[in-house]
Amino acid sequence: MLDHPLATIENLRVEFQTKDGPVVGVEDVSFEIRPGETICIVGESGSGKSVSSLSLMRLIEYGGGDIAGGRLLFKRGNGDEIDLAKTDQSLMRTIRGNEIGMIFQEPMTALNPVFTVGRQLTEGLRMHKGLNKAEAEARALDLLKQVRIPEPERRLTQYPHELSGGMRQRVVIAMALACEPRLLIADEPTTALDVTIQAEILALMDRLKRETGTAVMFITHDMAVVAQMADRVVVMFRGKKVEEGAVEDIFERPQHNYTKALLAAVPKLGEMRGKAYPEPMKLLGKSDQNLDPIKGSDEVLLEVKHLTTRFPVKGGFFRRTVANVHAVEDISFTINKGRTLSLVGESGCGKSTAGRSLLRLVEPQSGEVHLDGKDIMALGSNDLRAARLDMQMIFQDPFASLNPQMNLMSQVAEPLQNYGVAKGQELQDRIAALFDRVELPRSFLRRFPHELSGGQRQRVAIARALALNPKLIVADEAVSALDVSVQAQVLNLMMELQAELELSYLFISHDMAVVERVSHDVGVMYLGRIVELGPRAAVFENPQHPYTQALMKAVPIADPRNRKDERELNFKPIPSPIHPVGYEAAPSEYREIGAGHYILTTDSGY
Asked: What region holds the ABC transporter domain (predicted)?
């Protein structure tokens, strides 16, 4: 490695102007990035990780921020060292994309919905590298091959909405790498991705870094990803840097209390070996925790039989149905009172559709759903409304599920008012109690969703789901967008509520370590079918279906000395779930290989 750093951040201070005066986003942060090195910046949302990276790109001004102090030194390709904090925006335009590339967290907002993928990839190449149309297109095709997108020629002519989340994120990575930048800033690039795609993208970034010598500034809150990728780690907390060191030192000998708490909050795959029941995590600084295992009961609450949900694909002049998306194909399971069944699998496998079908938020084609003796599929609209008192849903994106124009008190009060459960002072007391339950300060009652962090918004969504004392909660990726420590608190909160109120959860997730922590039973979904179903210990410690085995292999482990090799990852491309109208799917048949442990014998396509 060269001695001279590529980028140096010195005493950076960033302020945001608000109605109540300036708010400091980052205060006195310093670190450097050397060529060919991966430096991971970790911390929770609101700790200033993204603010530091946006300052380096000088995009912070567009987000209402102001670099109030410090220097951002960057060594350009021609050997000049410049202070990016004082560079004018026209020169920054040349540097952005050309010398510093950035991968954003949310691929759908990073891509322009009205231009094809090819147009967006070639734009930067023609602007920065002066290539003509044909050269730029050839390079764009080459980039898509590099990030391993299937059928790259076809993808160039498609629009972003026609690609899955994982593919969109690969396009964003290809765009960031297009001009071979010397520094690549990756802001939470794998948060929204499946385990298998995340493993491939991390291996891809690592390989590209080795081949091109690019320095990588990787921003994440996933400690397993840090263990997999980092050379050095910078830990941030409330706008300040609290610790910096080599990745092994941070994981094995953390010095600062915050780093210790962060590492304690990471659920590690394999931690639950030998434990029959889920139990809350032991968090630092919380001495009054109840860590008893959650046994649940033997009484069946939810019974699902042969549930099938399909979506029509319209086409032709008369918009007739020409094919169907087989989103959920003949799945059956039961959930007992006070217990958790987790559905895991990659995006597009039908797990969210399965959860929504239970509540009839999407109408299933066929199948039976019995909740506490009630046949949900046979209910008319009034009865269904009454039945929904017993079942609630927590969605993946709390910002989309909250109304931006209502304050939080009104949002949590809404279900109580709709069902006429409480009013007046009793209503206010119940809402305040719910806020205490999810550990949000009561001063937040008058706030609006945009004034909260992601973790706080998700707690509001949980408070709202709990307002009607439901028996079943469908949690659809409820903690996937949260920070490690917030995720641990929210999971503990959900488990404590489960033990206290005998709640049952259908927990939909792609985070295997979280699933291992919270589940009594696990169902692995692939292409609309459950391919393996059984008690958590059986599925995790003795996976039998080849897809489950591949999924387990892909999970990154929070141990820098136990990194995954790219050669271990051999995923087959997922076949299309779209079939012509007359297509008859074979019924799902299972073989029992242990007590309550079943694997699919029908051909699942894997």
From this structure: 9-263, 302-552
Cα(210)–Cα(258) distance, rounded to whole angstroms?
Answer: 32
Dihedral through CA 509, CA 219, CA 105, CA 127, nearest 10? -150
Query: Strand pairing of 391-394 and 472-476?
Result: parallel
CA distances to 136, 163, 344 from 123, rounded to whole Å, are: 8, 19, 38
CA distance 531 to 550: 13
- Same domain? For 204 and 126 the reply is no
Cβ neighbours around 274 below 10 Å, total:
7
Asked, for residue 440, whether it belongs to a domain, the answer is no
Residue that is written with structure tokens 């659920």 in the block: 267
Whether residues 3 and 91 share a domain: the answer is yes
Do 211 and 129 contact (CB within 8 A), yes or no? Answer: no
193 and 150 within one domain: no
DSSP letters for 113-125: TTS-HHHHHHHHH
Q: What are phi and psi of 39, to 5 degrees?
A: -110, 125
Amino acid letter, 211 = E
User: Is residue 219 a part of any domain in this protein?
Assistant: yes
First to last CA, the chain: 43
- Which of the listed residues 266, 289, 313 is the one where a domain comes to its end? 266
Q: Do 40 and 124 share a domain, yes or no?
A: no
Q: Are 389 and 472 in contact (CB under 8 A)?
A: no
Question: Is 426 within the bounds of a domain?
Answer: no
pLDDT tens digit sequence for 386-431: 999 999 999 877 777 889 999 999 999 999 999 988 888 999 999 9
Range of the domain at 48: 1-99+184-266
pLDDT higher than threshold 50 for residue 467: yes
Q: What is the per-residue DSSP string for 56-124?
A: HTT-GGGGTEEEEEEEEEEE-TTS-EEEGGG--HHHHHHHBTTTEEEE-S-HHHHS-TTS-HHHHHHHH
Residue 390: strand, helix, or coil: coil
**How many Å apart are CA 577 and CA 180, to the nearest integer?**
36
Sheet with 7-18: strands ordered across: 21-33, 7-18, 65-75, 81-83
Last residue within a domain, chosen from 178, 204, 227: 178
For the stretch 182-218, pLDDT in tens is: 999 998 887 767 777 788 778 878 887 888 788 999 9
Residue type, 148: R
Residue type, 255: Q
- Burial level of 591, CB count in 10 A (0-12/13-18/19+)? exposed
